[in-house]
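Summary for the funding panel

The consortium committed to producing paired sequence-structure records for every protein in the target list. Below we show the first two records in order, beginning with the earlier of the two.
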Amino acid sequence: MKKLKASRSNKNANKSAGKARLAKRTPADKQTIEDLVAANRILYAQSVLDGYGHVSARHDTNSDRFWLSRGMAPGLVTAGDIMEFDLSGEPVEGQGRQTYAERFIHSEIYKRRPDVKAIVHSHSPAVIPFGVTSVPLRPIFHMSGFLGTGVPIF
């Protein structure tokens, strides 16, 4: 009987701990999270992101942190799926949820570029071939003038 009660109290403690973590989010955090959820869903709906792409946003009040959803399809992201990460790419409160392996790309960019406020990681079928072949991506009409004389192949 004691074990059962202890187990129940642990569950209640975990529930209240989860609520406490969510309560720490400021109005600015909540707005950023809403925008991040919308960005995931819109970019997925517009076929900018496939089922493995994702979007992150720098934390509003702590520039050493960023928001990114747990590892899941971007078209299904809700506010409850958004996690906080430090600039090492580690979840602040992971709660055992699966994360994207590419979160380290986000953390390194945020670490080196304080001016960057959001990042989109996509697997665009229209662009990927140019990154894996020696065929250069070239500007072919006036709207691509920003490409200048070419784009480097990494």
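The next record, for a separate protein in the list, is shown here:
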Amino acid sequence: MWQDPIVEDVHRIREKLAAEFNFDVKAIFADLRKSQASWGGRLVPQKKRAEPTAEADRGRHSGSAGSTSSEAAPAA
């Protein structure tokens, strides 16, 4: 089976990092936050996601069984 050298490298680094922090995820993230604070303004802020509008939400559920569509056949 073919093995991707990049994936192998990522796995090796992940294992080394985890071992460095005794496999404690909270400790790893605490260290990342500490590093981020030292970088200051050099990081690009993450954009906030826009909340979905009522119109977009209405269109998402148009195919459900309880929907009332104007395309429904009139009662005979």
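Regarding this second record: The first helix runs from residue 5 to 20. Helices lie at 5-20, 25-39, 54-60.
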